[in-house]
Design goal:
5 helices; Nitrilase/N-carbamoyl-D-aminoacid amidohydrolase; alpha+beta; single chain
């Protein structure tokens, strides 16, 4: 049996403003506060260094990108070492001229950057024009053996894909982290808002159940206007960052419209117990899943 191993997860739900330096300073300060509350692993929301620029397609926003290693990872590497924690940092990565990724860096206390995950699924929806900015990830689905646990990172749109969660869990991840930037279109909120949010949360809780692991979804909060659009046009980020157990139970959930440092304890022994009692990994018919690599199966 997996020995009992308790950890504290720190989820940073924050508002993001126009100034990248101010956002970085706020994220560092909130991470320090989370560690002060006992967090062993801290995760920031998706692309926290700026407003969510993907609402429009504008070449000027490529100036927000940074290399990895770079300013943000250096700052968080120093903080992680000082506080003896693990930090997951979501970044707009400038890999080379004309080549950019939506990237998450996993930073460990004494070893610095353990590795990076590049977002694999890139959306192209109204106010989520990410294909204009990001090249799809080319590193595959990964898990990282940190000083605290074996964890996996997926990013936002990845959270809707059971294949991504499964492949990350199969690499040994005991916790799946989802840095996220998701919210409502204000003009649709009354008609669709509740269902949209419920679908988002339920899909991730299902990943926890199907894979016998913990899940932590870390969202931003607040209204961010669409650049150049009329008043009231933008994204109202729905916050509600949460952590759930391997049985899908929500352990902690942040409010909708408030910046929150959510610190919640978990017991990794429950993950192994879940996999023993719900042996989905044992009973998978790996001999019968070849067609999953096809786009569609024509009748």
């Amino acid at each position: 049996m997996h020995p009992i191993k308790t950890l504290n997860l720190g989820l940073i739900q924050m508002r993001c403003g126009e100034d990248p330096s101010a956002n970085l300073s706020k994220a560092l300060a909130m991470t320090r506060q989370a560690a002060g509350q006992g967090a062993d692993i801290v995760c920031l929301p998706e692309l926290f260094r700026s407003r969510y620029f993907c609402q429009t397609e504008e070449h000027r926003f490529f100036a927000l990108a940074e290399p990895v290693p770079g300013l943000s990872t250096e700052a968080f590497s120093a903080l992680a070492k000082e506080l003896e924690i693990v930090v997951i940092v979501s970044l707009f990565e400038r890999r080379a001229p004309g080549l950019y990724h939506n990237t998450a860096a996993v930073i460990d206390a004494d070893r610095g950057i353990l590795g990076i995950y590049r977002k694999m699924h890139i959306p192209d929806d109204p106010r989520y024009s990410e294909k204009f900015y990001f090249t799809p990830g080319d590193l595959g689905f990964l898990a990282f053996r940190t000083s605290r646990c074996h964890l996996g990172v997926l990013v936002c749109w990845d959270q809707w894909y059971p294949e991504a969660a499964r492949l990350t869990a199969l690499r040994g991840a005991e916790i799946l982290f989802y840095p996220t930037a998701i919210g409502w279109h204000p003009e649709e909120k009354e008609a669709y808002g509740v269902q949209q949010h419920q679908a988002w949360e339920i899909s991730q809780r299902a990943h926890a159940i199907a894979n016998g692991c913990y899940v932590a979804a870390v969202n931003r909060t607040g209204f961010e206007p669409t650049p150049g659009a009329s008043s009231g046009h933008g994204i109202d980020f729905w916050g509600q960052s949460f952590a759930c157990a391997p049985n899908g139970a929500v352990l902690a959930r942040a409010p909708v419209a408030e910046e929150t440092i959510l610190v919640t304890p978990i017991d990794l022994g429950q993950a192994e117990q879940a996999r023993i009692h719900w042996p989905f990994l044992r009973d998978r018919r790996i001999d019968a899943y070849g067609d999953l690599s096809r786009r569609f199966i024509d009748s």
